[in-house]
Specification:
elongated, mainly alpha, about 750 residues
Length: about 750
């Protein structure tokens, strides 16, 4: 089978270590790079893929995972991105169950362990790619490039571009895909272990390799590309196929075609198995996904929406050059590269065309060397390096279908294998040419240390959304989404003034950014700047007529402006576009209550609780409205129903306690008041209303005590001062009678 006379290690000044020590060192440095992310928060896409994903919860049937996309939505939905990764979601679910909830530490630790395991496997993978596949007489695979494989695996382990996959929990899809991708490749190599006759291969291992490729595909879409790489490896390494020679013989219709290796025993059969497996996976994937393509918008991938084929082609190639630059110089990293971060190239006079020219100059030079070199080992290493660089990247290239991003660091996790392989080969060529081998080795060691430092810094930025979003401001200042996310993070922390600044900048950079308009409109609404809020929300629904949240918020503003008919119409439009919208029904109920349309209000709030049984505000409003309109029995029934569903909600306890007190069920009312106070001891109204209960009940000393606590918590508590004064007068009268 494959022989490997050429040895990169002869030219490389590097450490020679036993295989197990090499793996330990690679595992340790890979862990060192990202260990500080273990206690990070859920950040960016983690919210949608994990916290808001119902597929992680125990009440969701496991079977639903096979019909839902990565984000928990139905694959059949028009809004689905068609990202089908059920095995990745299953690992999230296991994390959630073992942690007993959404505790990020366990999620992060698993990601770090996965990257360490992948980095350790890379020692074996690179030993095959760089040294060839050869076995000892005892059937043990030989590592013919221990120094080169250690260097390449180290470069892979510490590459900063991997930070998003490791420190970002949703990056687990890429990690799991890479793990099974490598296992599939190693399994295929095991299938090609030769016997004494030199022509044996294991069908079972070939099938196992295809199965592992299918598992990789169920973790992330890139996984299927391992089948293509296995075929390339089989043809070039095992059968030593010379592509140029093959093409020449085909063109000349040479009768010796069967001698070039294509028809050697077993190759066509193995390729057929790989093709059949790949075709079966694609057919099943297509059937599960549905025939509709993923739904993306122009802001996700503006080049794919360009009318001109020239503009699309130029920009796609520019995106490729940016990915190559991130591999070469991973210093400027960003969590998101969309929304104006990379302006479109629209003419050949744009200076960025130079990047395209540089990329294709390097690629063409490498391809020519890979195809035309007289050195068979050079051809093999360059072809495999280019194969691992390009083939796993193809699903993200926009060539076969539109993708939902411009540049994404996570998608170059697998292609970085090819980059590390080519870089190691380049280092060996430099070592061969220079006499200062130790200086060159020190330079490479310095690059590794710099990358480790960059990984530590970058993984620290991924620990919290605030650090992550702010780190992007210097990298992509034109990215509206970056400003939006910084603003959202500030708003969540209560810093509305600073949030407004970033939301305005997001809208300035992208005048059609409806989500930024919606959030800015919300803040302005809370600050009672209703006219500007209405203008922003009206513009948002004009740009995106099916934006249900903006319609609801517009209704709230119109209600505040006392334009009730318009508000009602806005609410119903929101519900039309999102039928299961409990918050909108809640706000609609408030509108009807303001208009004294009590039956309509109760119906709206009831709809809200049907759609969301834990909607405490809707339950509370029903109880209060029924109480205020004298329907005490109905209010009591609704209150008891609500507490059965939300037994620890102190606001519901308080509302029901008020109803029970008016119904003269003092003992039960007292118990609920005390339970509510235990849950929220600093609520002045809880103490004040309990004092009123005691006052009615005749427990004047306890009434006095809780009136005083209420006034201490809130000296301006409405009604409490008057009630306390009445109680004191009554106590004085009782004291006078006692003295008489």
């Amino acid at each position: 089978m494959a022989q490997s006379e050429f040895n990169l290690d002869h030219e490389i000044s590097w450490f020679v270590l036993p295989s197990y020590w090499a793996k330990i060192i690679v595992g340790l440095i890979s862990c060192m790079c990202f260990a500080n992310s273990y206690d990070g928060d859920f950040v960016f896409d983690d919210s949608e893929a994990i916290i808001n994903n119902k597929d992680l919860r125990a009440e969701t049937p496991l079977g639903d995972l096979w019909h839902h996309d990565f984000w928990g939505g139905k694959l059949s939905s028009n809004t689905s991105h068609k990202s089908y990764r059920p095995l990745t979601v299953l690992t999230f679910r296991i994390n959630y169950l073992f942690a007993g909830g959404f505790h990020p530490v366990g999620f992060h630790v698993i990601n770090i362990i996965l990257h360490c395991a992948i980095s350790v496997l890379m020692v074996d993978v690179f030993s095959i790619l760089l040294g060839g596949l050869q076995y000892s007489s005892k059937g043990r695979r030989l590592n013919l490039a221990p120094k080169a494989s250690l260097l390449a695996a180290s470069l892979f382990a510490v590459h900063p571009v991997h930070t998003e996959c490791v420190a970002g929990i949703v990056g687990r899809a890429d990690l799991l895909c890479a793990l099974f991708f490598l296992l599939s490749f190693l399994g295929y190599c095991k299938a090609l272990r030769e016997n004494k006759e030199g022509n044996h291969f294991s069908i079972l291992w070939v099938l196992a390799s295809v199965l592992l490729g299918a598992i990789a595909l169920l973790c992330k879409e890139q996984g299927i590309t391992v089948l293509g790489l296995n075929a390339v490896f089989d043809a070039l390494v095992i059968n030593k196929l010379n592509i140029v020679e093959l093409i020449q013989k085909v063109l000349r219709k040479d009768k010796s075609l069967e001698n070039v290796g294509l028809f050697k025993k077993g190759l066509l059969f193995r390729i057929t198995l790989l093709l059949s497996g790949g075709a079966t996976m694609l057919c099943l994937r297509w059937r599960i996904m549905g025939t509709g393509p993923p739904a993306f918008t122009e802001v996700d991938n503006p080049a794919s929406f360009a009318d001109s084929l020239f503009v699309r082609a130029i920009n796609y190639n520019y995106y490729y050059s940016l990915n190559a630059w991130l591999l070469l110089c991973p210093w400027w990293l960003c969590f998101d590269w969309s929304m104006g971060c990379i302006p479109l190239i629209k003419s050949v006079s744009d200076w960025r065309i130079i990047a395209l020219a540089a990329l294709w100059f390097c690629l063409i030079a490498l391809i020519c060397q890979a195809l035309c070199s007289q050195d068979s080992h050079k051809r093999r290493i360059l072809t495999l390096g280019l194969g691992f660089l390009i083939i796993p990247f193809l699903p993200a290239s926009n060539l076969f279908f539109r993708v939902g991003f411009v540049v994404a660091e996570r998608v170059i996790y697998l292609p970085s294998i090819g980059y590390c392989m080519l870089l190691t080969y380049g280092f060996s060529l430099l070592s061969k040419q220079t006499k200062k081998k130790k200086m060159l080795a020190a330079t490479v060691l310095g690059i590794l240390l710099i990358n480790v430092l960059r990984c530590v810094i970058r993984s620290n930025q991924w620990r919290s959304e605030e650090q992550l979003f702010r780190s992007a401001l210097s990298v992509c200042p034109l990215n509206a989404k970056v400003h939006y996310n910084v603003g959202k993070n500030l708003a969540d922390k209560g810093n509305q003034t600073a949030a407004i600044k970033y939301y305005r900048e997001a809208v300035r950079l992208n005048p059609k950014y409806v989500h930024a308009m919606n959030n800015l409109g919300n803040i302005l609404k809370e600050r009672n700047e209703l006219q500007e809020a209405e203008g922003l929300l009206s513009l948002a629904v004009q740009i995106q007529p099916d934006f249900a949240a903006a319609w609801m918020n517009l209704g709230i503003v119109q209600n505040s402006l006392r334009r009730f008919e318009e508000a009602e119409q806005s609410y119903w439009t929101a519900i039309k576009h999102r039928k299961k919208y409990p918050d909108c029904y809640y706000n609609l109920g408030r509108l009807y209550a303001d208009l004294n349309r009590h039956i309509d209000a109760l119906n709206a709030w009831r709809n809200a609780t049907v759609l969301k049984p834990e909607h405490s505000l809707a339950w509370n409003n029903m109880i209060i409205l029924l109480d205020n309109t004298g329907n005490l029995a109905q209010a009591e029934a609704v209150g008891r129903e609500a507490l059965e569903l939300i037994p620890n909600d102190h606001s519901l306890m308080f509302s029901l306690a008020n109803v029970l007190g008016k119904s003269q069920k003092y003992k039960e009312s007292e118990a609920l008041f005390l339970k509510a106070i235990k849950a929220n001891p600093n609520a002045a109204s809880y103490h004040g209303n309990l004092a009123v209960l005691y006052h009615r009940w005749g427990n004047l000393d306890l009434a006095k005590k809780h009136y005083e606590v209420s006034l201490k918590l809130d000296p301006a508590a409405p009604g409490t001062k008057e009630n306390y004064s009445l109680l004191k007068r009554k106590l004085e009268q009782l004291q006078k009678k006692g003295d008489a």
